[in-house]
Write a structure and sequence with these properties.
Shape: globular
Mean pLDDT: 88
Largest sheet: 7 strands, mixed
CATH architecture: Alpha-Beta Complex
Order of helices and strands: HHHHEEHEEHEEHEEEEHEEH
Distance between the termini: 38 Å
Structural class: alpha+beta
Bound molecules: the ligand Nc1nc2c(c(=O)[nH]1)N[C@H]1C(S)=C(S)[C@@H](COP(=O)(O)O)O[C@H]1N2, molybdenum atom
Strand content: 15-25%
Number of domains: 1
Amino acid sequence: MLIRSRRSWEMAERDATPEPVYRDRRRLVQAMAAGPILLPSLAGALLGGGPARAAEDDPSARMYPAMRNLRYRLDRPVTDEKQATTYINFYEFGSHKSVAGPAQALKIRPWTVTFDGMVEKEKTVDIDDLLGAMKPEERLYRHRCVEAWSMAVPWTGFPMQDLVAYARPLSGAKYVVMQTFKDPAMAPGQKQFWYPWPYVEGLTMAEATNELALMGTGLYGKPLPRQNGAPLRLVVPWKYGFKSIKSIVRFTFTDKRPVSFWEKIQAAEYGFWANVNPEVDHPRWSQATEEVLGMGKRVPTLLYNGYADQVAGLYKGMEGEKLFM
Ligand SMILES: Nc1nc2c(c(=O)[nH]1)N[C@H]1C(S)=C(S)[C@@H](COP(=O)(O)O)O[C@H]1N2
Ligand SMILES: [Mo]
């Protein structure tokens, strides 16, 4: 029998909160929501200030932490929360990594989400009504940016297939297009007129309903920080990070393939499919390895970012397409 030896970066999920701890915290949060069973000060102390603090400005805070779905496992440690919430790509607030501060200007309530295009009935819903109709869970996923850095984080969210079912697309719909808010007064990056605002991304219906496609609403057992794309973002871990669009306000169903934000800017470097592949280099750099944030070293990049079992079948018979950029 072949026993594969562990590579150094294949470590246990030691930084993630163990399941029983999560479950107990969740029960406590539910108890708090149900009524004044605990004195607020005691509850706050038991919760370590996390969800309680977030509750001050986020009405969805009581959803957290959600039960972890143990089907999704990591081959490396969970990235330090501080790192994952301060090393940020969010061009609406500036074209550099230190946009966590400026992104606090993002106003996340009221927030509405519109479903339109090829749907049975177009509708605009309040984010808290949408969240209330979904069942949150936590998943540990790898994340690989096209710039060749990566992290591994505990997202909270719900399967995108549940969102698609909620939207009720017509059978002729082939793609779902997602759009970020547009408000240059709030997000000064959007005053940079040479970018094609608003940020737009798209998936095929088969991709959107794949089990891995997640609508992210939380991170590290708390509501999503603004800089990470509150209150609703896409998480598609087998694709380069730019596909995982933040702060979504609209889902449009269509039979025409959309041209996404980065594809409009530079189609020779950023395509529609953007699946991770270590053997297909970016025109200006290699994609063979990646720097794992906080680990100070590079590891080999995996085909489909390690998710080939779940997604390779989506692309059978599509060899003519530029699937990997
Ligand atoms: N609206 C919007 N979504 C976006 C981006 C952006 O600039 N604007 N950057 C993308 C890129 S390049 C990456 S790597 C991820 C980063 O997500 P994170 O900051 O939560 O790690 O968000 C993606 N989604
Ligand atoms: Mo990225």
